[in-house]
Design a protein that fits this description.
- There is one protein chain.
- The chain has 3 domains: about 60 residues, dopa decarboxylase, N-terminal domain (Up-down Bundle), CATH 1.20.1340; about 250 residues, Type I PLP-dependent aspartate aminotransferase-like (Major domain) (Aspartate Aminotransferase, domain 2, 3-Layer(aba) Sandwich); about 110 residues, Alpha-Beta Complex (Aspartate Aminotransferase, domain 1), CATH 3.90.1150.
- The protein contains 15 helices and 11 strands.
- Bound molecules: pyridoxal-5'-phosphate.
């Protein structure tokens, strides 16, 4: 029996590459790739910001089946340059003013290289104690930098969508005394959730995933400043209670996606406290700006908030993915998500923090490392200067646009985001015109802008937030917009 087993093992040992050779090849190629990375960042401005390819262009260049034999990294890298790069939209381009930013920075990149090299799976304290303890500490730094209450505890999630999904689940469990986890939602519970008509789609998605049903998500209207109408919220809650519903959760926005509207944390918090409702704040993009004392009035009343999320991977120089999720009562989150199969039990048990119980996923990357590199490398003051520049340049450009004939500002800057549109005299269909203008600008490639609707009007969003953007880039983009507007 033994001999059979041994010979079987012998037969199944296949040679891949000699390990020392593979490591030396890695060293050689890594040096080349790091050089390429530095050159890319230096010259990223020379690429069209939005990829100029058509659907299927990349697919046509990719073989339909995987190679049978391994290929040299040098050959793969050449194809990366020739095939993949033309299909990249350059989020690190200094004239990227679309969506929200997706920051990267040299400090963050270096940490990402280390994270990838270590390849640790940081689901529990035991699987990398440094990752867990660093995560706890850097989130305390961030919490204090944002002036969040010191009874908030932080965890890093992949995305704001995941953090909001956690909040929606905890709200469901808290109001049903963790019964839904046990028995399912069933007809006994008629839960209602509330957010503004400006809230990000991740709220609706989370409500769907949690089994609440989108018909039970109330989209509360906003006022002229894109801020949730708190009286309308109160009325909706009252009406629902009168109709036998149980209000479970309100999600407020700080810096909503369309035009950057911000809800009243104080006003909504009072409503939530009075009605025993879970209160979650989505500050995915603008939360970074709360490291500026001049914005901290926006979180007056934060004591009433149960959880708060923002993305350092948007506007705080940290590579995707890195989402800071702060929770007032982590035990509720853990009680909602905990599972403990035999194979995950460890000697330390409850004596340590196991972040596997704090989010949707089990496996976790060491995301704290890049945040640690970023905060140490820039310092809080460096990060504040980074944000203040963007906010100032956005404000400066909005004033210029406001004074320019044939253009109008639709919403003034919220943080570093404003909206505007082209409105030449005699033009009737402004929505169609502005739509054509956005497409022409993006096809031109020198800058990249996206659209939204404000009060039913199609408008152009302009947000300043990229790592390498200077005041000159902002002003140059405006010249491009004016030039193309004359042509559409
Ligand atoms: N919330 C807001 C306000 C957003 O603007 C976004 C994305 O832009 C999200 C949530 C979703 O972010 P994520 O991609 O991290 O899930």
């Amino acid at each position: 029996m033994f001999t059979l087993h041994a010979s079987f093992l012998k037969l199944t040992v296949f040679k891949l590459k000699e390990p020392p050779m593979e490591i030396e090849e890695f060293r050689k190629e890594a040096h080349k790739i790091v050089d390429w990375m530095a050159d890319y960042l230096k010259n990223v401005e020379n690429y069209p910001v939005r990829s100029q390819l058509k659907p299927g262009d990349i697919m046509d260049k990719l073989p339909v089946s995987a190679p049978k034999k391994g290929e040299a990294i040098a050959d793969i890298f050449k194809d990366f340059q020739d095939i993949i790069m033309p299909g990249i939209t350059h989020w690190q381009h200094p004239k990227f003013f679309a969506f929200f930013p997706g920051n990267s920075s040299p400090a963050s990149l270096l940490a990402e290289m280390l994270t990838a090299t270590l390849g640790s799976q940081c689901m529990m304290w035991e699987t990398s104690p440094a990752a867990t303890e660093l995560e706890i500490r850097v989130l305390e730094w961030l919490r204090d930098a944002l002036s969040l209450p010191n009874n908030f505890t932080g965890v890093i999630q992949d995305t704001a969508s995941s953090a909001t999904f956690c909040a929606i689940l905890v709200a469901r469990e808290r109001i049903t005394n963790w019964n839904v986890n046990l028995k399912g939602l069933g007809p006994n519970y008629k839960l209602t959730y509330y957010t503004s008509s400006e809230a990000h789609s991740s709220v609706e998605k989370a409500v769907k995933m949690a089994g609440i049903g989108v018909e039970n998500l109330r989209l509360i209207p906003v006022d002229g400043a894109q801020s949730m109408d708190v009286d309308a919220l109160k009325n909706a809650i009252k009406k629902d209670m009168a109709n036998g519903f149980t209000p479970a959760c309100v999600v407020a926005s700080i810096g909503a996606t369309g035009a950057g509207g911000t809800d009243s944390v104080q006003g909504i918090g009072e409503v939530c406290l009075a009605n025993n409702i879970y209160f979650h704040v989505d500050a995915a993009w603008a939360g970074s700006a709360l490291i500026l004392p001049e914005y901290q009035h926006l979180i007056e009343g934060i004591e009433a908030v149960d959880s708060f999320v923002f993305n350092p991977h948007k506007w705080l120089l940290t590579n995707f993915d890195c989402t800071a999720h702060f929770i007032k009562n982590p035990n509720e989150l853990k009680r909602t998500l905990t599972i403990l199969p035999e194979y995950l039990k460890t000697r330390e048990g409850d004596k340590v923090t196991d972040f596997r119980d704090w989010g949707i996923q089990l496996g976790r990357r060491n995301r704290a490392l890049k945040l640690w590199f970023v905060i140490r490398s820039y310092g809080i003051e460096g990060l504040q200067n980074f944000l203040r520049n963007h906010i100032n340049w956005s404000s400066e450009l909005s004033v210029v646009i406001d004074k320019t004939d044939d253009f109008e500002i639709i919403t003034n800057p919220n943080f570093s985001l404003f909206t505007f549109r082209y409105k030449p005299e005699g033009e009737n269909d402004l929505d169609a015109l502005n739509d054509r203008l956005i497409e022409a600008i993006n096809d031109d490639g020198r800058t990249y802008l996206t659209r939204t609707k404000v009060d039913g009007k199609l408008v152009i969003r302009f947000q300043v937030g990229s790592t390498h953007t200077s005041r000159q880039h902002v002003m140059d983009a405006w010249d491009v917009i004016k030039e193309i507007a004359c042509e559409v």
